[in-house]
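pasting ST8 alpha-N-acetyl-neuraminide alpha-2,8-sialyltransferase 6 for the record, 286 residues
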Amino acid sequence: MLCCIYIPFTLQPTVKCSAASISPLHSSLQGNALLQLYPLYTPAYSEMLCCRYIPFTLQPTVKCSAKNPFSSKPWDTCSVVGNGGILSNSTCGEMIDSAQFVIRCNLPPVESSHLKDVGKKTGLVTANPSILNQNGLLDRRRPFVDSMSHYKDALILLPAFTLSKNIQPSLRVVYTIEESLSPIRPVFLNPEYIRNLHSFWSSKGLNKRLSSGFMVASLALELCTNVHLYGFWPFDQHPLLQQPLNNHYYDNIQSKKKVHAMPDEFDHLLRLHEQGVLKIHLGECV
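structre below
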């Protein structure tokens, strides 16, 4: 599911990635089609090479590290933290950080001013393409490195294999992290995993590009026995307090609605909540 990083690389003729086995994780969630159809996690981590990508192929010149960051997992409890404005004044920070593993989306702020509502513990954080393109890393890289210090030695999930145009920005992040000796650890998703993930949800009616929050919520179901979602509310009014909400807990910049289908994604998450597969938190945490 997660690839270690292999650099440097060369462009080679197409070769197939090594096969990945169906995950034995979450046997307690028998009957959950989501987990039966798309998991690609494999104990043979060192053989799971992310080598194929259309329109060209990346053939690693060195083998992936055999070290699996999830070798002793799944975790019992995981918090997946979206960036919805519903987190403002939620006082959910302590509950979020009490989970064994915390996943955050798109390099969100976790400074002290937000600590009470969103916490600061981070095991994995995503960086979406727009953030990478905005930073560029073509000029001064120190501000980007400094901003990463809030996540300490977390895994940073880069979108290298979602679209071909994301490869170079993702690699610039990798090089910047290496050169700065930052403790944060870059990882990529296996393109076969991405393809299966999109195929599964497309069969359920989600035909637009999956948001990073929805992807890591799906990912968490493979890594965690109990998945708790926070900040997943894609509407501009609070469901309980009936008051207006900002788009994010840290700003009110609107998302590109033509790219993702956030309300439709939330509808699927709500169904999983109703089935007891995961838990969505929408009110204040006490």
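Residues 74-281 form a domain with the sialyltransferase cstii, chain A fold (CATH 3.90.1480.20).
The chain has one domain: 74-281.
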